[in-house]
Amino acid sequence: MACLNNIIQKIQDTFQVHVHGPIFSSQRIESVYYLLPSYDGQLQPDPDTLYIGTYPDHQPLISDGCILLLNCCSNEENSNILTIKENLDSFAVLNCIQQELYDSRKADLKRDEVLQVLQAGYGYQSMLDTAMTFLNNPITLCTTSFSVLASSPKDYFDDKFDVYDEKFYLKSNFIQSMKEKRVLQHLFTSSTPIIVEHDDSHDNSYLFCSIHIKRAAVGYLCISSLNRPFQSADSSFAMNLSKLISLEMQKDECYAEKTGLKYECFLTDLIEQNLDSKSIAARHLAQLGKTLYQYFWVLGFTFHGFSNTQLNPNYYIDQLSGIFKHSMAFFYKGTLILLHTSNCKELYQSIDKQKLSHFLQLNQIHAAISFRFEQLLDTPRYYNQVMFLLRNQNCIRKEHIITYEDNYLNHLLAASQNQINTETLIHPDLLFLQNYDQENNTEYMKTLKAYFLNNRNALNTSNYLHIHKSTFFTASVKLQT
After folding, report:
1. What's the CATH fold of domain 121-249?
2. Angstrom distance (rounded) from CA 12 to CA 321
C-alpha cells in the first residue's frame, strides 16, 4: 500500500501539474482502477482503491470514494474529489500510479525482511545491508556524537569521514553544514526525514532520519544519493528502518538497562575527598586503565527542554567519550560529571568544540566547564565551580556551554555571603607562573606584580626593579610564552 500524498507527489513530479482537492497523508491506497461511465451515481467505492476518470465523462458525480478526475475544465473544486485541470492521458497517469504502488510494495517487503533480521539477532550491520538492497545507495548509522555505528557497504567511507583509534566520525565541516542547513534542529524535533545537499557535493544529496528512544534522539541514518536519485518511497522506508534500528538499540544495555558505571567508585572517592594522596589516586587509575596527563578540567551536564533523562546514563557517557578522548564520567547526585585530562593547556586544543556544541544542541543539554587545574586531588574544588555554574541562572551561556572563565566574577561576588576556596578563583595561567617560579628559582610573579603596580608602564617598572629595560622586555616575552 502507498500513501496517497506520495502518489499525488509522484503525479505532480512526473507530469509537472498540480492536483487539486483533499489530500490526506494518512490515507493508504492498495490499488488503482479506471472509473467507468456506467458507475455514475451508483459507485460503491473500495476505500483502499483510487479511481481514475475524466471530468467531462463523470460530472455530476457524488461519491465518498477516492476519485481522481483528469481534464477538469471547471474552476469549482469538489471537496470530495481530486482533480487535474490539464489534458492528461489517463493510461499514462494510471501507469504512473501503478509504479508508485509497486515501489511502495517493494519497500514494505524489504521492511519485513529487515524486521526478520532484527528478530534473528544479526545486528546493525545485517539490518543496513538488507536495507541497502532496496535503497541502492550507501547508508550510515551515526550516534549523536557523530561517530559511526555501522555502514553499508561496510567499507564505505568517503571524504565526509575522519578516523580516530580505528573508529570513524563525521568531519567537522560536514557537521557545520548540517547545522547551517538546520539538519540538527530537525533531527531533534522531528521523526520525518529531511533531504539536503552538502556545499561541496552538489551532485549528491543526503537523506537524514532521526532515531529516538523514549523521545530522546539517540542517533540518525545518513543516506547518500550516490548511485541513484531519491524516490518518494525512500523517505517512508527510512522512517520504518529508523524505528527498527531503535528496537535494536534498546537491546544494548548502553541504551536500555541501568548498569554499574566503570569509574563511579573512583570519581566518587575523588570528589568526596576520600583519597589520601596522588600516588594512591594514580594507582587506582592504573588499575582502571586510565592515563594521567598534565592538565585537568571538570565538566557538568544538565538536561533541559524535551530531553528524556530516563535513558541509561551509560548512553550519554558513551557518546561523550567519543568527544572527550581522555575522560572519565559518571552520574553524581543527579548530575552527569566528567573529568577530562590532557597535555594541552587549552581545552579546545584536545577536543572538537563544534562537535561538543552540536551534541549538546541535539540532546538538549547544558555543559559547565571549570578552570584548568594540575593537581588531581584538587578536583573537589573545581567540581564546586561547575555546580555553581549549573545552579546560577545569571551565568553567561554560549551555545549551551557555560565556562567558569566567563563567570568567575559572579562566584567571587557570591563569596561575600558564602564560604569559598579563594585559591580556585585564581586564573590557571597565574598558578602555572607561580609553579614555574618555585621550580626554576625565577621571579616572574614579582615582575608581573611590579608591572601592575607601575600602571603597566615598562620603563617605570624596570626602574622600580632596578634592572635595564631590555632585561624587562626579555622577561615580558618569556611571560607571554
Report:
1. Beta-Lactamase (3.30.450)
2. 47
Across 270-300, b (16+ Cβ under 10 Å) vs e yields bbeeebeeeeebeebbeeeebeeeebbbbbb
Non-local CB neighbours of 456 within 8 Å, separated by 6+ positions: none
Task: Assign domain 2-100 one CATH number from 3.10.20, 3.40.50, 3.40.1390, 1.20.120.
Answer: 3.40.1390
pLDDT, one tens digit per residue, over 342-362 is 999 999 998 988 889 888 888
* 426-449 pLDDT per residue, tens: 777 777 878 888 888 887 778 887
d(CA 219, CA 144): 5
Write the CATH number of the domain with boundaries 264-424.
Answer: 3.30.70
User: Model-level pTM?
Assistant: 0.61
Question: Which residue's C-alpha cell is 621571579?
Answer: 443
Residue 380, all three cell numbers: 573537589
Angle separating helix axes 428-440 and 444-453, nearest 10 degrees? 130
Q: Are 345 and 431 in contact (CB under 8 A)?
A: no
> Cis omega before residue 153 (within 30°)?
yes
Residue among 193, 225, 196 nearest 210 (CA)? 193
In angstroms, the CA 52 to CA 5 distance is: 16
